Amino acid sequence: MILDDLYRVILERKRNPSADSYVSVLISKGKDEILKKIGEEAIEVIIASKTGEKEQIIAEFADLWFHCLVLMEEEGLSHSDVFKELETRFGKRR
């Protein structure tokens, strides 16, 4: 699953920072910067949705989800934790 792959990359960039890595730079700037990016990306999703341009909406959602994954890692969580919560809410298990 692509979320698993992305999460592994985020973990790797945190463990082995590189000046050439956007993820490493973002993480090094701290939680406030990650939160700022999530806010920006959420606004961009809203704007793209208002235009109705599907490809742009998808691109902005991808950016938002990516930055949320970075924050999850910063918080010691993963997308699996969110999936488990959703499964609990909807009474389903994988």
Topology:
Elements: H1 2-15, H2 22-29, H3 31-51, H4 54-74, H5 79-89
In short:
The chain has 94 residues and is mainly α.
Please describe what this structure looks like:
Helices cover 80% and strands 0% of the residues. It is mainly α and 94 residues long. It has a single domain (2-89), classed as Helix Hairpins (Orthogonal Bundle), CATH 1.10.287.1080. The longest helix has 21 residues, at 31-51. It is globular and about 40 Å long.
- Ranges where pLDDT stays below 50 over 5 or more residues in a row are none
Report the helical percentage: over 70%
Write down the Rg: 15 Å
- Average the pLDDT over all residues and give the rounded result: 94
Instruction: Kindly identify the CATH topology.
Output: Helix Hairpins
**Which architecture name does CATH use?**
Orthogonal Bundle
Classified by CATH, the class is Mainly Alpha
Query: What is the count of β-strands?
Result: 0
Beta content comes to under 5%
Structural class: mainly alpha
User: How is the main sheet built?
Assistant: none
Distance between the termini: 14 Å
